[in-house]
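input
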Amino acid sequence: MTFRDGCRLFLLCALLTGFCLVLGRMVHPVETETTAAGMVIAEGNGIRVLSGALDGYFDVTYTRSQLLKGTLPVVSPLHPLPADFPSPNARGVRKVVGAYLPALEETALARDAIQALCDLQYDYALQGVRITRGAVSMAQQNEERRKVFENLLHTCSVEEAAEKSRQREPAGGESEHQLGLCFDLVWTEGAELGKGDMIACCDTGLWLKENMWQYGFIRRGAPEHRAHEENVCGNLHIRYVGVPHAAAMQAGNWCLEEYLNILRTYGCITVQVEGQRGNCIYWLPLTHEDGITARLPSPYGDVSFDNMGGAVFTCTAPGA
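output
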């Protein structure tokens, strides 16, 4: 081989190497390190919420059935559940885990909520508390409203009883309990009542307030959030939404409605929890009733309709 042939071979190898590198980046876009995450929206408890998220490379399609199984819909008289919303796929907590969790015999929850509660119980044994009123059907919720109305009739006129029952108990389709992801807490011992906020009445409540987000739970009906919340519930009403969303709400001290408004405003955010991989969260308007296709950085993740005209997509940031 002549010197000139050797130079030509060297140049050809260099060109092929460069082409392969470019091709590799084209066929493996999920490995890109580019991120649009920028401004810090909220920060605290080892959590950072950033505006923006990774660009998508995968077109992922979700059916309406998948959207309706999500954890994030707002449920209230202003935003009742759609007529085709399925009954909660819930099981009796005691039937699943026995006495491991301090739940009443009739309390039922979805599998993800039960698993998250078991993880929480493993790290912090719940004491002086009962888990009550989990999943309900539409018929059961209507029956609860009827009972409240009939009790009020003893002291109120029909018109007053009807108005007060609407304020105290949601009708069928208007209650978060129909998701199978919510339950109420009742203190059984060790609570010092009269402190104002019910969750601050005992050590268990204070621990939950600071730590339950790590297991995907948020509190509904907190005094500081009532001005922004649509739903009717007591102030010891707990809801499972998943860790990334609970983390973001903890960092920003947002209720669910405020959090969904943040997602609509920014379109996408990145949630970073210290010591864990980040999560990319996207919001898109729902323009078709039968489903939606979104371009995401990973084909694996969760989806939920928000019951306010949009859908929320969540996936772990690749390579984060």
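quick obs: The radius of gyration is 24 Å.
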